Amino acid sequence: MTLEDIYGDVRFERYFALLSEWNNKFNLTAVTERKDVFLKHFYDSVLPLSIALPLFKEGARILDVGSGAGFPGVCLKLARPDLDVTLVESVGKKVLFLDALLSELKLTGIRVLKTRVEDFKQKDFNHAVARAVAPISTLAEYCLPFLKIGGSCVFYKSAVVENELSAASRSISFLGGKVENVLFAQLSTEILRSFVVVRKFAKTPLGYPRGGNKPKLEPL
Fold first, then answer.
1. E-strand spans in the chain?
2. Is there a contact between 152 and 198 (Cβ–Cβ < 8 Å)?
């Protein structure tokens, strides 16, 4: 899906209208100009789909950790209706917005759960995605425990990601994962994005993710 496709899709127009309406009350995003929302939120969310290597298999079960205002999970669902998407979000106002958005867009095969990811129990996903949530060392603990063996995480990151990867190497390995690839795609002429793909090859030890916000406060 190209940026032009998104501009021509009435569903994204309705998404933007509802986001703008709710943002006046709840401050869901600091990015508010139409062209910026379409580029930096909508297009950025679906950008991994433009990479030649398919990241998400047909009909895959996707977990979006810390979905916020629906980025990237809702956008991925709009671009790939075959995906089954679960949005995990702990902030009440964002959950209310997501419920309203899914109703407005009349989407099926997607749901939002109000919970902290540490308290989430379902562990049968093919893929997990996270955008603008935390460093990779924390994201590994937020995401890998919920995947089937053979599944993968896709972390949305900036072009400069080497330090994060180095700091996360121990946690990724301990939790049963391995960095499979770092893919790059041009968001605009000025912005290059990276997508860190972590494959799960072994079971995650019991007790992960840890509660008490430890994945963020005390990364492995």
1. 61-65, 84-89, 110-114, 125-131, 147-158, 177-186, 192-200
2. yes
Which residues on adjacent β-strands are paired with residue 195? Answer: 156, 183
Q: Which residues contact 58 (CB under 8 A, 6 or more apart)?
A: 82
The C-alpha atoms of residue 129 and residue 94 are separated, in whole angstroms, by 18
Total-model pTM: 0.94
52: pLDDT strictly greater than 80: no
pLDDT higher than 80, residue 53: no
CA angle 201, 213, 211 (to 5 degrees): 65
The neighbouring-strand residues paired with 193 are 158, 185
Integer Cα distance of 51 and 152 in angstroms:
16
Q: Quick one: tokens of 155?
A: 């972390």
CB burial string 23-61: b at 16+ within 10 A, e below: beeeebbeeeeeeebbbbbbbbbbbbbeeeeebbeeebb
